[in-house]
Design a protein that fits this description.
By secondary structure, this protein is of the alpha/beta class. The protein is built from nine helices and nine strands. The protein has helices at about 20-25, 45-50, 70-80, 100-110, 140-145, 160-165, 175-185, 210-230, 240-270; strands at about 5-10, 35-40, 60, 85, 95, 110-120, 130, 160, 190-200. Strands 1, 2, 3, 4, 5, 6, 7, 8 and 9 form a nine-stranded mixed β-sheet that branches. A hairpin with a 5-residue loop joins strand 6 (about 110-120) and strand 7 (about 130). It starts with a strand and ends with a helix.
Length: about 270
């Protein structure tokens, strides 16, 4: 029998693209799916869209009040019942073979804790823009690059549930990147399928597409996340090659980040 996969999909006021996201999961070639939708206090038509489905694979959990992403992620991890957990966002679209291919990879590679995939970036209307995170693929490349930047997706990953439940997310500027660093620090193997199995949408409300915030905060978010990560690991592990690389890249990110912040601040002053 196919292993059960929990697809964790948090949503907050996601009515615009939610149906496309849900349909892309329910129409997967891999059928043994537990689609866990956690509504974080939506005030739009999100709940009505979810309740319009009669598929028994859907579980709807509603937060009593808005908890924010990190707490909602961790709540979902606690509620996951599958052998594997796949992440999904309410504005993205999963290619119909995504779950099947990621499960097959993890089933065939017992040493791998988490598998990502290349993403196809689309605009608000669904038009293809480019491939994303397609230059760093193998476990060695991912481990070598992680101290410097995040070349992994978030809504595109699948992870073994027992490991996910052990680590969870911590509240920081980039909770997904912090998790990848902690997994790598403990020598968990992360791999990526060299095929675009997720359509990752950029639109006006998405963080990645918010150019002003990205210009002034992007690099600093990485620096702050690295600092918080280094503060919490055991002192004996701070002097590994991996963590020394994290430290020096953190220093560089702070310098570059504050330069970008200053330039953006002046840009906004001059514009106004």
């Amino acid at each position: 029998m196919e292993s059960l996969v929990t697809v964790l999909l948090p949503v907050y006021n996601g009515e615009q693209y939610l149906k496309l996201a849900i349909d892309s999961i329910l129409n997967q070639t891999y059928k043994n799916i537990d689609l866990l939708l956690i509504d974080d206090g939506s005030t739009d038509g999100t709940i009505e869209i979810i309740k319009s489905y009669a598929d028994p694979r859907i579980r709807l959990v509603r937060n009593e009040h808005n908890l924010g992403l990190t707490a909602t992620f961790n709540k979902g991890i606690d509620l996951a019942i599958g052998k594997y957990v796949a992440r999904m966002d309410a504005d993205d679209i999963a290619i119909n073979t995504r779950i099947e291919k990621q499960v097959n990879f993890l089933e065939g590679h017992k040493e791998v804790t988490m598998v990502d995939c290349v993403m196809e970036v689309i605009d608000k209307d669904g038009n293809s823009l480019k491939k994303y995170n397609s230059d760093i693929i193998s476990e060695k490349e991912i481990r070598r690059s992680l101290p410097y930047n995040n070349h992994l997706g978030h809504s595109s990953i699948m992870i073994r549930a027992n490991i996910y439940k052990k680590y969870k997310y911590r509240k920081t500027d980039a909770e997904d990147y912090d998790l990848w660093l902690r997994l790598a620090n403990d020598n968990h193997v992360i791999h990526k399928i060299d095929e675009p199995l997720l359509k990752y949408r950029l639109h006006g409300n998405s963080y990645t597409d918010n150019k002003g915030r990205k210009r002034s905060r992007g690099t600093l978010r990485l620096a702050i996340t690295k600092r918080n990560y280094l503060k919490t690991i055991h002192i004996r592990k701070r002097f590994t090659f991996f963590n020394i690389s994290v430290f020096f890249s953190m220093v560089k990110d702070y310098i570059v980040g504050y330069i970008k912040y200053y330039m953006n601040y002046n840009y906004l002053l001059n514009k106004n």
